[in-house]
Amino acid sequence: MPAAALQSHPSVLLPPRLTQKSGMMHLLFLLAVALSCHGCPDRCLCSSQTVKCQNQDLDEIPHSLPNNTKILFVTGNNISRISVDSFPTGLKLLTDLYLSGNEMESVGAMVFDNMPNLVRLDLSNNKIETFSERAIPDDNKLQVLNLSSVLQHGNLSMLKVLDLLFNLINLSLQNSSIISIQNGTLKVPPLRDLDLRDNSLRYMPTTTLAEFSLKPSLHIWLAGNPWRCDCFVEEMLLWLKNSTQVIDMQNLTCADPEALRRQPLLQVESSQLKCVGDMEGVLETSYVFLGLVLALIGVIFLLVLYLNRKGIKRWMYNIRDACRDHMEGYHYRYEINSDPRLANLSINSDV
Ligand SMILES: *[C@@H]1O[C@H](CO)[C@@H](O)[C@H](O)[C@H]1NC(C)=O
Ligand SMILES: *[C@@H]1O[C@H](CO)[C@@H](O)[C@H](O)[C@H]1NC(C)=O
Ligand SMILES: *[C@@H]1O[C@H](CO)[C@@H](O)[C@H](O)[C@H]1NC(C)=O
Ligand SMILES: *[C@@H]1O[C@H](CO)[C@@H](O)[C@H](O)[C@H]1NC(C)=O
Ligand SMILES: *[C@@H]1O[C@H](CO)[C@@H](O)[C@H](O)[C@H]1NC(C)=O
Ligand SMILES: *[C@@H]1O[C@H](CO)[C@@H](O)[C@H](O)[C@H]1NC(C)=O
Ligand SMILES: *[C@@H]1O[C@H](CO)[C@@H](O)[C@H](O)[C@H]1NC(C)=O
Ligand SMILES: *[C@@H]1O[C@H](CO)[C@@H](O)[C@H](O)[C@H]1NC(C)=O
Ligand SMILES: *[C@@H]1O[C@H](CO)[C@@H](O)[C@H](O)[C@H]1NC(C)=O
């Protein structure tokens, strides 16, 4: 403002007032210096170009940060949201921004527009529910993004912002309840390190594996996921054994089924990977079914016998009587045959 005032008054440029002008310039210069290195914000520590405002219960980003700040820590505070107003002044030299552990729920549009040279951004240990697609400008230089313990419900589609990070080489999505990585979720081209540890992955779709294979320089961390070791994991197992991309593949373990629990995935044989619906399972269930049917038939048979016991008894008596009559007939004939007189008689009569 004062500079504009000077120019709009030609009289100020007259020789007698020269000293006054230089004095004013001096004042302006002092003001500029004061503005550029205005002291360290309250509750922060500044040393060279690093500013640390840690564990101070701050509920917003301190304003009036030195404009030559290179590394900024605002961690362990209570900042529930950041928006375009959080960084109102240019921080052209800022390369590293750490905002871990702030109970942060929302990241608004254009938050990082005032820091064109940002390379490392750490938003870990927050509870982000909304993350604006336009939070980070298109022409960013971001290379390392830490989103570990950030997502509550593993909703990766919330992170559309990832599609615009054309320089990203290091992405951590650790401990974020992620259930699946579909093909095309992680388009970021130059990605080199992808940390997916401690999520809720049970399978990795074949198309995603193929997509990973197309980026041979990509390294992936996958331990701490509850892999389900049934027939559907077989494809992934083959891929794992033939790939050098998964750095911690020795540490992957099965969570399911019970028989394979905590078994290292790499030590599971293909023959152990079974699915309900496999031939063996079908046979097993059909044997059980057959057994049940036979048991049921047996029970019905016994029941019929029991209900009809009188008839059966009578029938048995009848049979017994019939037998007795028959036997008596035999007995009688035997007695006749064994009587010698009758035998002689019969012999004589035969003759
Ligand atoms: C800081 O601000 C002052 C004046 O406002 C300016 O002269 C200086 O170049 C700025 N420094 C940086 C690194 O932007
Ligand atoms: C954090 O901020 C919220 C309001 O945004 C407040 O209710 C809560 O008490 C604060 N927590 C701490 C530990 O200061
Ligand atoms: C990401 O943040 C977590 C938690 O703050 C930390 O343990 C981890 O080392 C960080 N990862 C990277 C790549 O900086
Ligand atoms: C994982 O995230 C939960 C909250 O989502 C947190 O309580 C827990 O400490 C985190 N674990 C690690 C190892 O960071
Ligand atoms: C995931 O996030 C997207 C975008 O924010 C939203 O439209 C969708 O409803 C969310 N899905 C779930 C299951 O929360
Ligand atoms: C990138 O991520 C890996 C694995 O998380 C880590 O070891 C490495 O230090 C990270 N590199 C940078 C530059 O942060
Ligand atoms: C994955 O999706 C991309 C497009 O998003 C496609 O070009 C590629 O062929 C797909 N890969 C597989 C294996 O389906
Ligand atoms: C194993 O990996 C190589 C490249 O690393 C690939 O050419 C080959 O097709 C893979 N084999 C199988 C069975 O996936
Ligand atoms: C595997 O797990 C062990 C024990 O937790 C750990 O020391 C080791 O670094 C892990 N290996 C890899 C490659 O992450």
Description of the structure:
One of its GO terms (biological process) is negative regulation of canonical Wnt signaling pathway. The chain crosses the membrane at residues 287-307. InterPro entries: Cys-rich_flank_reg_C, Leu-rich_rpt, Leu-rich_rpt_typical-subtyp, LRR_dom_sf, LRRNT, Wnt_signaling_inhibitor. Residues 225-276 form the LRRCT domain. Residues 1-39 form the signal peptide. By secondary structure, the chain is of the alpha/beta class. The protein has 2 domains: 41-277, Leucine-rich repeat, LRR (right-handed beta-alpha superhelix), CATH 3.80.10; 281-332, no CATH class. The protein is built from 7 helices and 14 strands. The strands form 3 sheets. Strands 1-2-3-5-7-9-10-11-12 form a 9-stranded mixed β-sheet, with no helix packed on it. It has a 3-stranded parallel β-sheet with strand order 4-6-8, with no helix packed on it. Strands 13-14 form a two-stranded parallel sheet. The longest helix is centred in the last third of the chain and has 30 residues, at 309-338. The radius of gyration is 45 Å and the shape is elongated. 22% of the residues are buried. Residues 1-18 and 29-36 have low confidence and may be disordered. One 2-acetamido-2-deoxy-beta-D-glucopyranose is lined by residues 149, 175.
Class inferred from helices and paired strands: alpha/beta
The CATH topology label of the largest domain is Leucine-rich repeat, LRR (right-handed beta-alpha superhelix)
Q: Helicity, in percent?
A: 25-40%
- What hetero molecules are in the model? 2-acetamido-2-deoxy-beta-D-glucopyranose
Number of domains: 2
Unreliable stretches, pLDDT < 50, 5 or more residues? Answer: 1-18, 29-36
Transmembrane segments: 287-307
InterPro entries: Cys-rich_flank_reg_C, Leu-rich_rpt, Leu-rich_rpt_typical-subtyp, LRR_dom_sf, LRRNT, Wnt_signaling_inhibitor
Signal peptide: 1-39
Organism: Seriola dumerili
